[in-house]
Structure prediction request, 266 residues.
Amino acid sequence: MIGETDINAILKSQPPTRSAMAPAAIALANLSFSYPDKPNVLHDLNLDIHQGERVGIVGYNGCGKTTLFMLVCGVLTPSTGSVALLGEPVAPGRFRPDIGLVFQNPDDQLFSATVWEDVAFAPENMGLSPEEVEARVRSAMQLTGTEALHQRPPHHLSGGEKRMVAIAGVLAMLPQVMIYDEPTANLDLRARRRLIRFLQSSPQTFLTSSHDLEFILEVCDRVIVLNEGRIAADGDPAQVMRDRVLMEASGLEVPHSLTHTHRSEP
Ligand SMILES: Nc1ncnc2c1ncn2[C@@H]1O[C@H](COP(=O)(O)OP(=O)(O)OP(=O)(O)O)[C@@H](O)[C@H]1O
Prediction:
């Protein structure tokens, strides 16, 4: 019995709002970032992600997607500028349960002896009652289809199974904003399709990076193209990614499904 802690029910009961009064889910103001040995990875980014949006971040290897996610989560400190999450400034190093990051490599996230313990880790560390922890774990596993794995050691799972368990572990915190870093990497077609369906039915605001541009077309309603540390384009995924000049200048290709549509147009 999941009852009151059904994660999707809770998130849907707080419908996303884009009114002028609602704070942006994520707001970047004049955000720049350099590593000590890699300057100007991100340069003067200004961006609002509104509540309820599903945003894809695309760009060549090393253009700064993961760095941007680390800044949004407060793992890295901006060199200049600021990040705000749901209207509150992000203070580097301060844990914010309202944002959840699913790492590019699930092995960086899974470390407990069993899947159940891994999914329970965050809610247990939020000081919740054992009943609440159990309800959240059950709900997160149900949403991600990982119930049958609950007694397995995470390091024995396949890549696709690990990915869904890693997502369950983050969902169990009930974050309002999710970040998925390259979530389709190493997934087979069935696992990728399962993830697409899961994200299409997710009520949360999310940001996802991917080199799988067809995936971005299927799950996102907005795409941001990063190039040389700056925003090269921001808009409707099909419209932006159909622009061959922009895509090639940004080290990308027009996704196949869009070139096909283009050719068959009169
Ligand atoms: N800890 C670090 N120290 C120094 N340079 C780093 C560090 N982490 C990343 N970089 C560099 O910063 C740049 C951006 O890296 P980042 O991982 O953010 O790119 P990305 O767009 O996520 O790449 P990919 O598509 O390959 O995952 C790269 O040139 C990378 O080599």
Observations:
- The first helix runs from residue 7 to 12.
- The CA atoms of residues 4 and 10 lie 8 Å apart.
